[in-house]
Amino acid sequence: MALLGANGAGKTTTLNLFLGFTQPTSGRALVGGVEVARQPAATRSRLAYVPEVVALYPHLTGLENLDYFVRLGGRAPAGRGELEQALAAVGLPAEAFGRRARTYSKGMRQKVALAIALACRAEALLLDEPLSGLDPAAANDFVATLRRAASGGLAVLMATHDVFRAKDCAARVGILKRGRLIELRATAGMSGAELERLYLDHMQA
Amino acid sequence: MIARIAHIARHELRCQLRDGRFVAAAALILVIVLAALASSAVSRAQASLERSQARAHVRELWLGQEPTNPHSATHYGTYVFKPVTRLSAFDTGIDPYTGVVVQLESHVQREFAERPVRDSASLGRLGESGPGFLLCALLPLLAIFLAQGAVAGERESGLLRQNLALGASPRAWLLGKFLGLMGALGLVTTLAVGACVCAAAFVPGEETLAEFLVRSSSIYATILLLVAVTAALSVSIAARCRGARTALAVLLSAWGLGTFLLPRALNEVAEALWATPSAQGLEDQAHELFSQGIDGHDPNDERAQRRIAELLAANGVGSVEELPFDIGGVLMQEGEEYQARAYAAVFGNLWSDWRAQNRLRDLAGLVWPFAAARRVSMAFSGTDLEHHVDFARAAESYRGVLVKTMNMAIANNKRPAGERYVAGRELWETVPDFSYRRPGFDFALGAASRALALLFVWASLGLLALLLPWRAEVAA
Fold first, then answer.
1. What is the ipTM metric for this complex?
2. For the whole model, what pTM was predicted?
């Protein structure tokens, strides 16, 4: 599912509610039926999070970063092989595995974050504008990877400004305006142009 | 929780060791400290050599005096030397201010001579270039900067958010950061102190190996504690201050204030409040007191006349010639004892003023633990005020023995009127060579107790700051 909305509409806040970084003033955020505010540790263990700008430890290699985060998430990777597999699965070039992460492009960082999600065996993935700042080829590449992951049974919630790519990779889109979900639609049978029209109508309303 | 903390700590240590900035800063500190140690070790080794030669020489001079009247021998006098310890190369303490050699002669308790920092009885800016000072100043500074990068830096880059999203609690993350940084800082501390101790071991010092090891490992523990306290405070404050710059400003201010500004300012105040006299001033004070006692050199002195009358009465004789002992020797000794009491009062005042000054200077330790760690480091190195006073007392008591032996030799070897008693080497040899038993480690602990207590208060504060819950503001 993709969340669309203008800046300040509440996309990041929605993700923060699921991550337990923001406490709801009313209502509840549920992850797999468990309320986040009550059991943040339990719900976080089922989630993976890809921020807009993925930060990695600059002096560690991609592989070492992955190893650190996966273990922090409470899983002991079966070995270097499993980690390399996770990086390969998200399309990180093999020559980059052993390179220090400070040399990584934004797209490569995003891939490492995806690999962390996969290796942690997360059930749901929260992405905060993962496509902003990516060149079209990298964005395309990322969306393809995301779809592969989702086809494996991973639930995806992505906040984005990009209407066309939202249509491209999401089964459903929601439109947020001033903190309210004003539209929730399946994308099947809808063209990108139609979705954009719908979005703009809401924004101008 | 514990496994997670250990994981974060190991990771932090690995990041630091790979970070060129950490490696460069650590190398710089090592170079600075070792350069300081090399310079002080050379001068200590030189001093040690000179002193052992001089000691043998002054003993030879004493024993080799031409036969003469014993009281003349006391005016000729001798010298004693404060022992050089290996650890004084690590922390020169107040030695450069108080001096290391003292001349012993009758009638005078002298101030110590051979002070590189002359013309001042002040114990102000202590060993400001020595390795002990540098380590206590620089390692906490490194802790502040490392904590800034590891804690505030990760919060600003979003790494903290990613860590928490994976299920690390803010407390586990902070504890992990602290332990990881302590690994890195502990490594620098161990290398720096270890190198200093190894180098100092080669300085010819008078302490036993066991004493050297106990004292140097205690210094190591003290500096490690200082580093741990400052690292704990640094990560806690960096985590709680919303702006990274605010945390850095707060910590650097406390560091600068507690390391440089306050010690200097308090030093000025201390010297104004307890103005200590110069060597000449001490002498004047003593003479003021003497005027109330017997002058053994002047039998016509009124008080001496009264004392002579008493002694004549006590022995039931009518003239000094009939006394069984030499009246000159007895009066000389009694005058000496009076003067020694006067000196004890004068020097006692000086030392208690110095102690009062130190207590005021120690207030800097309330802002930042530097001053407390310095006080402990000096005490453990045996170069603080209490060790100095202990030696000065031993020197003064040896002076008392020497002068008394001479005066009593005169008293007990009465010569007919007009004939002077002349003694030689046999008498000089009855005065044993000066031997000084350096105070043990318990003495150093006692001298450092107040500063140690303050350090432990700081340590509790640091621990509390680490363990108190904090809200990681990562929702923005």
1. 0.92
2. 0.91
